[in-house]
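Entry 14. Ran structure prediction on the chain below.
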Amino acid sequence: MLAVVRAEGTTLDPVIVTSYANIILPRFAQPRFIKAVDGLPKMPTAKIQKSALRTRGISSATWDRRANHST
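Output, structure tokens:
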């Protein structure tokens, strides 16, 4: 899953993100799920808490590449 923090006042188009990922990432690294988040949970050392993102999991707001038949 790719968690994307949107800039204020912008929207997220998962199809565009997927198209860009197809260009720059090898197939095995391309995200199946894309989710817009308000911010990334961080530790006191400013590292991203990946475990906290995993705990949030996939919700109805998460875009699924397979379900949307995109590339």
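The first strand starts at residue 2 and ends at 5. Will compare against last week's run tomorrow.
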